[in-house]
Amino acid sequence: MSSGSPHRVPTAEEFAAARDSAEFVELRARFRRFAFPMTAAFLAWYLLYVLLSTYAVDLMSTPVVGALNLGILLGLAQFVSTFLITFLYVRHANRRLDPAAERLRHDLEGGA
After folding, report:
1. What H or E segment, with its residue span, contains residue 33?
2. Residue 69 forms beta bridges with which residues?
3. Which of 36, 80, 83, 110 shows its CA 20 to 30 Å from the CA of 73?
4. Pairing of the two strands 68-69 and 63-65
5. Residue 100: which of 15, 18, 16 has the closest Cα?
6. Poorest-pLDDT segment among 19-23, 90-94, 108-112
7. What is the mean pLDDT of the chain?
8. Rounded Cα–Cα distance for residues 104 and 26 (Å)
9. Phi, psi dihedrals of residue 11, rounded to the nearest 5°
10. How far apart are the two ends of the chain, measured CA to CA in Å?
């Protein structure tokens, strides 16, 4: 639709057929194979940070470089890991999800 040209609106039956198609099932599986493990890994990493901050105060207050301690560095690593996950997801989407979604949309809208 970015070209400004009108597109055909699919019927409910066409949407249902697209939803049940092997291509859509594979697209959804590709998304889930990335999103679920990455979400679980990040939540585990965040929970570890929270637990260490709460129950391992001496460890987290260990000086590393100058006034920076382990807790501060691990906290900053939370931001770094968030940006890394975002970068990996965008790369995954651009390579594996968007082309398949675009093909499905093209088929569903009849070449728009």
Report:
1. helix 22-55
2. 63
3. 36
4. antiparallel
5. 18
6. 108-112
7. 92
8. 11
9. -80, 170
10. 7
pLDDT of residue 6: 67
Q: Residue 64 corresponds to which tokens in the numbers above?
A: 């590393």
Amino acid in position 15: F
0.90 exceeded by pTM? no
What is the distance between the alpha carbons of residues 78 and 65, in angstroms, rounded to a whole number?
A: 18
* Token couple for 59: 């460890």
Amino acid identity of residue 29, one-letter, is A
Task: Assign residue 26 a region (left: φ > 0; alpha: ψ between -120 and 50; beta: otherwise).
Answer: alpha
Contact assessment for residue 70 and residue 61, using Cβ atoms and an 8 Å cutoff:
yes
Amino acid letter, 22: A
